[in-house]
């Protein structure tokens, strides 16, 4: 039987590399059977020729409490697909663990991409993620993620530092779509994030859906040691100054103007809500002292507004200057907003003892009461006598005493007619009575023998009628 040598041809898709046994993460074997020209086995002792190809994987390198090792289902990504974080990725053994630095220190093969050298002269393949400085109390942080190709990001932070990424709020990105190159992201930080070392895991793959552990067919996993710094000590700030009486209503504190005592002042946030001080205690409203001064202290930096309860009988003066733009300490920062007297919201980063509000007491409008006193005798025409109307020819009486009385009948002031006319002026709004004094009807009084008219009287003196009788006898 003629023996024919057959060439062995193996075709595989992917990148091939010769790896040391330590990095043989997964072995794929392809074989072909050798036969004679009739299809019979040509050599029963050597009936297959095989090619073995090693598929490299990238693993994480966080401490052992996290899923890192191949043996405990650690996160791993098949390499050779040109999808990775940063500028390069190398193959790992699946046996690295530490403080998220073992991968860099290992310098394993193969390498995909071009790695830069770190400060220790090692190839830096953990270069895909940069997290901004983070402190206790921060609510968010900037994260920069660089990728070689489009992929979906899943990431976790051990905020409570219990050695697990499975806690509530610890997955910070869920299938976040990234594009090749630099991606600027914002990561929410929970209130329970503690000072100290928090380990992070970032995984990116084309398909996404990656969990804390398990395999992905492309992409990379990078673990990082994140230091959460203590909160920057908060320096208390104060705000206040003076509530004053702007007597001349010019919106400026003049030298002779005084403070307004007893005014109620409230500090609110920019949306008009109550605020707490640095100790977490509610900031209560204050009352201005005898000089109109007020102050709120032990405050955190932030946006605030000040509201003043308009004192009874006063109105806010002109002004409303924005506190943030106000370089003067003599003008008014208050304005009326939705019926409330308050400042606009302002930024408080240092003590500000220049926030003032002015009020004035409006001048009360004054009024007058008056007209005439006459003899309603008809001027010779008896048909017009005592008709309650001032008719032509009827005499006006001079030197008649009239009294202005309040609603209780008490005399406020008195006056005499001049040419038959009288006037009470400079009166505030209110109810009054005008009376012809009883002394006019006694002794040498000019009305001795006269009596009050009884006909044609106007029922309501407030109707403003002229040349008619408003009088009547007092009981």
Kindly describe this structure.
It is found in: Secreted. Its main location: secreted. It holds the Pfam family GEVED. This protein is an all-beta fold. It has four domains: 1-55, no CATH class; 58-229, Immunoglobulin-like, CATH 2.60.40.2550; 237-360, Immunoglobulins (Immunoglobulin-like), CATH 2.60.40.10; 367-463, Immunoglobulin-like, CATH 2.60.40. Helices cover 1% and strands 35% of the residues. The chain contains one helix and 32 strands. The protein has one helix spanning 102-106, and strands at residues 26-33, 48-55, 57-59, 76-78, 88-90, 111-113, 116-117, 123-124, 129-131, 134-135, 140-147, 151-157, 171-178, 181-188, 196-205, 215-216, 220-229, 237-245, 264-269, 286-287, 293-299, 302-308, 315-316, 335-337, 340-342, 346-348, 357-360, 367-372, 401-405, 411-416, 421-427, 433-436. A hairpin with a 5-residue loop joins strand 29 (401-405) and strand 30. It is rod-shaped, with a radius of gyration of 48 Å. Mean pLDDT is 86; it is low at 1-25 and 32-37.
């Amino acid at each position: 039987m003629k023996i024919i040598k057959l060439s062995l041809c193996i075709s595989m898709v992917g990148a091939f590399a010769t790896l040391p046994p330590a990095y043989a993460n997964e072995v794929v074997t392809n074989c072909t059977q050798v036969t004679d020209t009739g299809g019979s086995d040509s050599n029963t002792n050597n009936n297959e020729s095989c090619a073995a190809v090693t598929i490299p994987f990238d693993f994480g390198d966080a401490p052992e409490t996290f899923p890192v090792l191949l043996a405990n289902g650690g996160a791993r990504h098949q390499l050779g697909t040109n999808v990775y974080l940063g500028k390069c990725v190398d193959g790992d053994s699946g046996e690295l663990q530490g403080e998220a630095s073992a991968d860099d220190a290992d310098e394993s093969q193969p390498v995909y991409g071009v790695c830069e050298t770190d400060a220790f002269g090692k190839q830096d393949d953990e270069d895909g993620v940069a997290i901004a400085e983070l402190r206790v109390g921060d609510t968010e942080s900037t994260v920069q993620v660089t990728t070689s190709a489009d992929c979906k990001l899943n990431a976790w932070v051990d905020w409570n530092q219990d050695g697990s990424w499975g806690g509530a709020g610890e997955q910070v990105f869920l299938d976040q779509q990234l594009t090749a190159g630099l991606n600027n992201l914002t990561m929410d930080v929970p209130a329970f994030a503690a000072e100290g070392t928090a380990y992070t895991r970032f995984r990116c793959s084309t398909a996404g859906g990656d969990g804390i552990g398990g395999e992905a067919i492309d992409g990379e996993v990078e673990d990082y040691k994140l230091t959460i710094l203590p909160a920057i000590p908060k320096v208390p700030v104060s705000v206040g100054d003076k509530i004053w009486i702007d007597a001349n209503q010019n919106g400026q504190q003049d030298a002779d103007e005084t403070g307004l005592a007893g005014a109620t002042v409230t500090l609110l946030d920019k949306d008009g809500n109550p605020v707490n001080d640095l100790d977490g205690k509610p900031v209560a409203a204050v009352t201005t002292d005898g000089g109109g001064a007020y102050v709120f202290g032990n405050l955190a930096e932030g946006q605030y507004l000040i509201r003043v309860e308009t004192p009874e009988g006063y109105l806010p003066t002109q002004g409303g200057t924005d506190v943030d733009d106000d370089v003067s300490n003599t003008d008014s920062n208050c304005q009326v907003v939705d019926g409330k007297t308050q400042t606009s919201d302002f930024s408080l980063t240092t003590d500000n003892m220049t926030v003032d509000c002015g009020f004035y007491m409006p001048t009360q409008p004054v009024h007058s009461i008056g007209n005439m006193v006459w003899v309603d005798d008809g001027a010779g025409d008896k048909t017009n006598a005592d008709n309650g109307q001032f008719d032509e020819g009827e005499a006006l009486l001079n030197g008649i005493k009239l009294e202005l009385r309040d609603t209780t009948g008490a005399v406020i002031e008195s006056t005499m007619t001049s040419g038959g006319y009288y006037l009470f002026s400079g009166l505030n709004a209110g109810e009054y009575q005008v009376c012809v004094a009883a002394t006019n009807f006694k002794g040498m009084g000019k009305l001795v023998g006269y009596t009050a008219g009884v006909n044609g009287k106007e029922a309501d003196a407030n109707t403003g009628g002229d040349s008619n009788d408003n009088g009547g006898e007092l009981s």
